[in-house]
Amino acid sequence: MKTPILFLFLLSGFIAQQVSAQDDLMKMALENTDSTKSKIISTFKTTKLISAQTNETVHKRTLDFRIGHLFGNVGEESNGGYHTLYGLDASNDIRISFEYGITDRLTVGVSRCKRLENLEGLVKYRIFEQTTDNKMPLAVTVFANSAISTVENRENAVYPKTVDRLSYTLQLILARKFSSHFSFELLPTLVHRNYVFDANDNNDILALGAGGRLKITRSTSLVADYFYNFDPLRKPNNGYWYNPLGIGFEIETGGHVFTIMFTNAVGILENDFIPNTTDTWSKAGFKFSFNISRNFRL
Amino acid sequence: MKTISKFLTIILVLAGPATNAQNIFVCTGGEITFFSHSTVEDIDATSKSMNSILNIATGEIVYVVPMTSFKFKKALMQEHFNDKYVESDKYQNASYKGKISEKIDYKTDGEHDITSAGTLNLHNVDKEHTEKGKLIIKDGIISIQSEFKVAVKDHKIAIPRLLADNIGDSVKVTFTAKYAPYKKDK
């Protein structure tokens, strides 16, 4: 009868001894600390990779001013070559955009693209964020835009009504940061065009984008993205349309992100490059391109 | 047997106060701020998630603060802090293990100047620190305040040359921790 009591006394003495050492105090302190529940940050460095959006949104009360420039095709076969200094004399597309973070999750923006004279309004919302404890293994962001093409009507290219000039993109961005060096994303995308000039063409186009970032140093990364088109007319080897593929190099300095890249995409806007890319890497139909992003805190 | 058990009980009761859980005081949600001054900009961030445990019998004290709990005024700065400088995904916490050298009567109210010698672990690099602070006992509640400097270089936190003007070489850290007796059932 006495032995269990003795045992308990010894045990309690033992437990008390345990918490006296610094390391055990540290263990106790760590138990109270929930640093494991935090959200994963910086899956990507900025809101776009090359052509693809990322799951990142603009921080609250911050304005992201972006300039995207897409030069002409590099190869002679694709109207580039020596006389355009391998595309540098041509500018296929220029996009200037202002994106503003209303909250850390909600971004709204406007942009102008040179190609098709598109004026775009966009909204982006972070639905889920990846967590360090992997209870939420993915970051999920939704992106939507609508754009109006203000080009003049020409022969074979007449929009019957003003609403015909509108096009839309709806995109889900599923991203995961696998390690501090590697992030990957998938982007199921629907592009809807109110009007298409060719009666055989489809108004709705479904595509799946994929993109990744491989960090090289603390401030530089290799980036790449690709869009696979599910549209029956745009299946591989159709001989006219191609899937856009871009590879690039990203440099981040405090407040700026520069991306220099090569891509066969014809435009910068989803509503344009997903249905309209007719250049191919195999005929040197890729272009030099760059993006500059500057963040201003308002 | 009876004698031995009595003897041991007495020993344990006598030895108890030195090592007993009663001597453990816990602080959760302490406030810690760091401040860096440079000619270009001032950077400051605050966390209200610092945990600390104090053993009043031995003077041993530990602190833990999750790096991602530091809130900055500029969100982009917070992102860079975690992603590029302290690498919060790899090294989640900053911690300190030390020992208060002064003998303090914790049963009576009062203010004491204290010195703690120990090790600061930040960015997974240890650095010895002997720092001064103030310990206040009022109505059974212990609180500790301190201010000290941490050199960014000591913890292998590299700042790119381009941004060297924006971030000060040393960072001033201040904190306040309030302690309550440890409750086992928590």
What does the model show?
- The complex is a heterodimer of chains A (298) and B (186).
- Chain A is 11% helix and 43% strand.
- By secondary structure, chain A is mainly beta.
- Chain A has a twelve-stranded antiparallel beta barrel.
- Chain B has an eight-stranded antiparallel beta barrel.
- The longest helix of chain B has 18 residues, at 2-19.
- Chain B is elongated and about 75 Å long.
How is the secondary structure organized here?
The complex is a heterodimer of chains A (298) and B (186).
Chain A: H1 2-18, H2 22-31, E1 62-73, E2 91-101, E3 106-113, E4 118-128, E5 139-149, E6 166-177, E7 182-193, E8 204-215, E9 220-229, E10 245-253, E11 256-263, H3 270-276, E12 287-297
Antiparallel strand pairs in A: 1-2, 1-12, 2-3, 3-4, 4-5, 5-6, 6-7, 7-8, 8-9, 9-10, 10-11, 11-12
Chain B: H1 2-19, E1 24-37, E2 42-55, E3 60-66, E4 71-72, H2 75-85, E5 93-100, E6 110-122, E7 125-138, E8 141-151, E9 170-181
Antiparallel strand pairs in B: 1-2, 1-9, 2-3, 2-4, 3-5, 5-6, 6-7, 7-8, 8-9
- Shape, per Cα inertia axes of chain B: elongated
What's the alpha carbon Rg of chain B, rounded to whole Å?
Answer: 20 Å
Strand content of chain B: over 45%
Radius of gyration based on Cα positions of chain A: 26 Å
Give start-end ranges of low-pLDDT stretches of chain A: none
The run of helices and strands of chain B is HEEEEHEEEEE
Judged by helices, strands and strand pairing, the structural class of chain B is: alpha+beta
Q: Largest sheet of chain A, order of strands side by side?
A: 1-2-3-4-5-6-7-8-9-10-11-12
What gross morphology of chain A would you assign?
A: elongated
Main sheet record of chain A = 12 strands, antiparallel, barrel
Structural class of chain A: mainly beta
What's the overall average pLDDT of chain B, rounded? Answer: 86
Secondary structure tally: strands of chain B: 9
Give the spatial strand order of the biggest sheet of chain B: 1-2-3-5-6-7-8-9
Distance between the termini of chain A: 75 Å
Count of separate DSSP helical elements of chain A: 3
Number of helices in the DSSP assignment of chain B: 2
Question: What oligomeric assembly is this protein in?
Answer: heterodimer
Helix content of chain B: 10-25%
Largest sheet of chain B: 8 strands, antiparallel, barrel
Largest interface: A-B, 44 and 57 residues
